Amino acid sequence: MNFPPPFYRWRPHPWHGLEPGPEPPRRLTAYIEITPFDLVKYEVDKATGYLRVDRPQRTSSQPPALYGFVPRTYCGRRVGALSPCATRGDGDPLDICVISERPVNRSEVLLQAKVLGGIQMVDGGEADDKIIAVLANDNIWGSAETLADIPHVLIERLRHYFATYKLIPGKESDILAEHIYDVEHAYKVVEAAMADYAEEYGG
Hints:
The chain has about 200 residues and is of the alpha+beta class. The chain is built from three helices and ten strands, in the order ββββαβββββαβα. The mean pLDDT is about 95.
């Protein structure tokens, strides 16, 4: 049987089988793993592509935005080189947070995201950047072009979430999430992550 493109006979792996976006680095495809309603950390299983439970959140902190990754990206040496406090990339796809006016309460969805900036996070010495974006066709936030176009409190909530979401009482955190960068640097991070993926897994 012949199937018309872009029909997939089998479900593609969300990391390796999907495109990074229609107009990277500005407009990206985001695969959503976690919603703002989740108190469990879900993560794509790298071998199967299915969503698995990574861990229940220890604290009461909830993600302030949709949270997932950009397909066919990899945080390797190029992404690590853009983060002065990191010794290397974390070896995962590039994370992305997507702000949406309407609540989206389902994960394992694809959406188009417009990049506005990012958080330069370092976790245990590894670069673990979080790209900040808005839903591309959002009726409220879709016209935003930079982080200056959205309330600062939303950015601060994201920064605080990532600075604290792995906290264990009585233990010192090894996460740095202080630096917020602009859209131009975010483009460099996305391009570096795409180049790292091509080097690691081929074009």
